[in-house]
Amino acid sequence: MSRMLIMGPPGAGKGTQAANIVKYYGVPHISTGDMFRAAIKNETELGKLAKSYMDKGELVPDSVTIGIVKERLLQPDCKKGFLLDGFPRNLNQAESFDEMLESLGIAVDFVINIEVDPQILIDRVVGRRVCPVCGATFHVEYNKPKVEGICDECGAELIQRKDDTVETATNRLKVYADQTAPLLKYYQEQVFNVDGSKSLEEVFASIKEHLGER
Ligand code: ADP
Ligand code: ADP
Ligand code: ZN
Questions:
Q1: pLDDT for 156-168, tens place per residue?
Q2: Which of 13, 39, 176, 178 has a CA 20 to 30 Å removed from the CA of 184?
Q3: 70 catalytic per annotation
């Protein structure tokens, strides 16, 4: 049974590694960023609200964010474990998450922290291209699709996220340093650090080494 969190600044490689991890361990990937982007695409009230914050690189209000995570964790597929990506992102979310876990009688087993030098993060974020259909992530230099601009997995045309600009990414890095990085201390018992400046394959290999056999 694995209940895991994956943490790290924007562009660290959380989503990329999360895709590998959930494939290997067979647990659901719960990404709050993906949930918000789906809501924006479906033009729901949640999407409208989330968009106004995401476009600026600010955090979506806790009341909303905590609510969607709570609802998601109650789905039956989470009984076998889960990998949370992008949540919690501040102390208040972490404390509410603890209450959720306690009421369910469960705990977090592993916190994976991907460390990357801030100087290379902007480059990663701005060069990121994502598939609007299946969610696969690529990079124009570091993780090129086989055919430029086309998703390897499903053949759809890749897009750039609206918040993947230098300006928004700079603000997201600041929000990360101010609000999210302090959580590493909160999770010091469960956290293990991975050097995210290595290649995609090397990063996944060190994660597997820490998590152990599935
Ligand atoms: P996060 O979810 O932490 O914001 P992503 O997984 O979306 O990060 O990765 C950000 C960008 O960097 C993507 O374009 C991805 O292809 C690329 N990337 C991810 N891991 C690496 C790596 N180890 N080396 C080089 N580029 C990477
Ligand atoms: P990245 O890993 O590149 O920072 P995410 O997809 O995790 O990107 O998040 C994109 C945006 O979605 C954030 O900048 C923020 O506006 C919003 N968001 C995602 N998760 C949370 C969260 N737990 N709390 C508040 N806002 C969030
Ligand atoms: Zn695709």
A1: 999 999 999 999 9
A2: 39
A3: no
Convert the pLDDT of each residue in 96-155 to its tens digit.
Answer: 999 999 999 999 999 999 999 988 999 999 999 999 999 999 999 999 999 999 999 999
- Measured between alpha carbons, how far is residue 183 from residues 150, 161, 191, 193 in Å? 37, 26, 10, 13
Q: 214 C-alpha to center of ligand 1: Å?
A: 24
Distance from the CA of 17 to the center of ligand 2, in angstroms? 16
Distance, CA of 137 to CA of 93 (rounded, Å): 26
Distance in Å from the first CA to the final CA of the chain: 9
Nearest to 159 by CA among 187, 180, 134: 134
Name the residue of 5, 14, 16, 141 whose CB sits within 8 Å of the most ligand 1 atoms, as the mutation to test its pocket. Answer: 16
pLDDT at residue 214 in the model: 72
Distance in angstroms (rounded) separating the CA atoms of residues 81 and 98: 15
Amino acid 1: pLDDT? 66
